[in-house]
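The protein record filed here:
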Amino acid sequence: MHALSKQSLASKLINWFDKNKRDLPWRKTTPWGVFVSEFMLQQTPVNRVLPIWNEWMERWPTPEALASATKPEVIKAWGRLGYPRRAIRLHESAKAISKMHGGIVPRERAALIALPGVGDYTASAIAAFAYGEPTLVLDINIRRFFARYFDGVEFPSNAPSLVERKLRSELIPNKRGDVWAAATMEFGALICTSRTPSCDSCFLAKECAWKAAGYPKTEIKRQAAFAGSDRQCRGVVMKHLRENETVTATQLKKSWPSESQLEKAVATLLEDGLIEKSGKKLRLATN
């Protein structure tokens, strides 16, 4: 079993992508639209992001528009996308882009990483998808595909190592390198999926190291159940505050069985700056 050459692999994947890519709205939008999508897509599936992204882009089509919104408006509009701190960081980034970059999402890596909520991965993704830069993007879909095809393992490690980054950087093709990240990400999302990969119909199956090894299973640590978790409790508090101007601790106790867990959820939300306290009442943060 021999892997395809860098050029042949890129050619096959990009040709497949050209014919099979999903019609996602952030693929034909402004750099700001890409910026918003990258914040929303962090640990959140596409089908949940689509309606919220459309609503946000209609309501706040530019960084200046979002920057002028209030913090409670932003948190409410984020809805149930999860991890609402992302909404706050996106709001802060909109203000920074408006003030420091003339309302234009920067394309330079250093300027991107300096923005609130933008780390190494997000900066690379924005550079690739907003500006067509041939950058190294390693989301979980891409990493899983590479781990199977090249390394013969079902799932990659929790985080990419320096060696992994170096090896994957060398795969970026000279021709149409700007499409490489999108093509490999789409392949992982549609073909080389996590639970039910389409190995029987995969056009790369002949060269796949994982198939050659007999599809060995990888032991992975499962995420704790959501039901009854601290995450769910925080979500219940946020739901009440999105739907009501203020709530009291007494009102919240009616919707959650564990008083100690509820107190912890409120404390962490206060610490994260998502809610604030006024006397005995809680409300969405305004500052």
Remarks:
- The chain has a mean pLDDT of 92.
- The longest strand covers residues 275-278.
